[in-house]
Specification:
Blueprint lengths: L7 H8 L5 E3 L3 H8 L5 E3 L2 E2 L2 H10 L8 E7 L4 E8 L4 E8 L5 E10 L8 H5 L11 H4 L7 H21 L5
Antiparallel strand pairs: 1-7, 2-4, 3-4, 4-5, 5-6, 6-7
Length: 173
């Protein structure tokens, strides 16, 4: 039997080690920034397999799981907690959607150390006013040099959250 020892996989593994995650803020702090003083009603739900498949194909956005972590904001609006892939990590963020269905804010909770450009207030402000529709995340929001994957994936995630809010909320919410 012929055998070779290859260093390529070992080298590739060494290069692609995940970056350490950096906690930017707690969920509670982000919730207070986006819905200050409001009563939040936990409203988690799970998309049916059919809705989950439709979400990915019709809206052309990646989705990691059919479970949705959400809170109804007393007085109107919603908060959605989501995660997307960065370069070597998973970015956790919170999106606020107002009673009219537009993004009213976004807060980053966790991202990879050194790749937290999307946590800047100016970049996050680009989402305010975005609504459900067939907009292209890569064109609608500025890509941040050095964090292109994270910024693109967060933009895709916000588009996904807007689609979930507009088309897939359970009727009992």
């Amino acid at each position: 039997m012929y055998s070779r020892f290859l260093l390529v996989p070992v080298a590739a593994m060494a290069i692609s080690q995940p970056a350490p995650a950096m906690d930017i803020q707690t969920l509670e702090a982000a919730q207070q920034k986006l819905a200050p003083g409001a009563k939040l009603i936990p409203s988690d739900f799970k998309l049916s397999q059919e809705d989950f498949d439709r979400l990915k194909s019709v809206y052309r956005v990646p989705a990691l799981r059919p479970a949705v972590k959400a809170w109804r904001v007393e007085g109107g609006g919603w908060l959605f907690l989501d995660q997307v892939y960065g370069l070597n990590d998973i970015v956790t963020y919170l999106v606020a959607i107002d009673a009219q269905g537009a993004v009213s804010g976004i807060e980053i909770l966790v991202c990879a150390e050194g790749f937290c450009g999307p946590s800047s207030a100016a970049w996050r402000a680009e989402f305010v006013g975005k609504t459900h529709g067939k907009w292209n995340p890569a064109e609608a929001v500025t890509n941040i040099s050095g964090t292109t994957l994270s910024s693109t994936h967060i933009a895709e995630g916000v588009k996904k959250i807007l689609a979930i809010h507009a088309r897939f909320l359970p009727t009992n919410h």
